[in-house]
Write a structure and sequence with these properties.
The protein is of the alpha/beta class. The chain has a single domain, classed as Rossmann fold. The chain contains eleven helices and eight strands. An eight-stranded mixed beta sheet has the order 1-2-4-3-5-6-7-8, sandwiched between helices. Helix 2 crosses helix 3. It is globular. It starts with 17 loop residues before the first strand and ends with a helix. The relative contact order is 0.16. The model has no long low-confidence stretch (mean pLDDT 96).
Length: 272
């Protein structure tokens, strides 16, 4: 019997988009927008990627009838790297939402993008319909949570190559071209100094327990940041959270297993 080591998923043709910049007190943030009359879904990128990295999700969302939108945070591809005393990630996102005249949005946040999704949900719950958080430890500030994360990522972890930190061993072994493409996106993602998300609201168990929106939590079964056990810990504090574990995927399940991830995401969005 023949066995395939890995079955690569080609990057699909992209849907035409409108590109622009939103001005946040003089800082210009780049965005793309598939447009149309569909419900808006805003894609919030990871710390090693940018708005340009959603190549598997952009056409899938548009073809399913959604208006897909992505933007690069400060310091990322085609966005300015300036900061000011007043900025938070929720404030920056709200400028985009208001500039595009969006009344209610769905948010999909991967890794650090999950920090942004939560910060916006806390600041503007009335503008959010549902939230999908993917492989994100969310910046939760709780002693028990900090202890678990310290066990997961000892001090030397930060010095490891990003592909080792974020891509599953199965993907790295089986899809060298996919790894190379991921690296290409990473190289163009950060244009200067990496700017960490500034949150307006500190995530705590109490704040998560007060969420009444529909929430999807997903991670890869090989994620070194958010393994399934940590995802279950998160879900235990979010009422009614829907959880999914993506097989043979690490910290970037939307990249490593895009077909399965897109089915999970579209099914969740369809229930909102």
């Amino acid at each position: 019997m023949a066995h395939e080591m890995w079955n690569p998923v080609p990057v699909p043709a992209q849907v035409p988009v409108t590109e622009g910049h939103v001005d946040v007190r003089g800082t210009k943030l780049w965005y793309w927008d598939t447009g149309g009359d569909g419900h808006p879904v805003i894609l919030l990128h990871a710390g090693t990627q940018s708005a340009a990295g959603w190549v598997y999700q952009q056409p899938a969302l548009a073809q399913a009838g959604y208006r897909a939108i992505g933007y690069s945070r400060r310091g990322y591809f085609q966005s300015d790297s300036t900061t000011d005393d007043a900025w938070t990630v929720a404030d920056d996102l709200h400028h985009l939402v208001t500039q595009l005249d969006l009344s209610k949005v769905d948010l999909v946040g991967a890794a650090q993008g999950g920090f942004v999704a939560l910060d916006y949900l806390f600041a503007h719950p009335e503008r959010v319909r549902g939230v999908a958080i993917v492989s994100s430890y969310m910046g939760i500030q709780e002693p028990d949570y900090a202890a678990v994360n310290a066990r997961l990522r000892p001090p030397f972890f930060a010095s490891l190559p990003h592909d080792f930190q974020e891509l599953s061993p199965s993907y790295r072994a089986g899809n060298p071209q996919g790894v190379a493409d991921w690296h290409a996106e990473e190289r163009r993602a950060v244009t200067g100094k990496r700017i960490a998300p500034v949150l307006g609201t500190t995530p705590t168990w109490a704040r998560l327990e007060a969420i009444r929106h529909k929430v999807l939590l997903a991670t890869g079964d090989s994620d070194l940041y958010v393994p399934p056990s940590l995802l279950r810990m998160q879900a235990s504090h979010i009422p009614g959270a829907e959880t999914h574990i993506v097989p043979e995927a690490g910290h970037s399940p939307y990249w490593e297993q895009p077909d399965l991830f897109n089915r999970i995401l579209l099914a969740f969005l369809g229930r909102l």
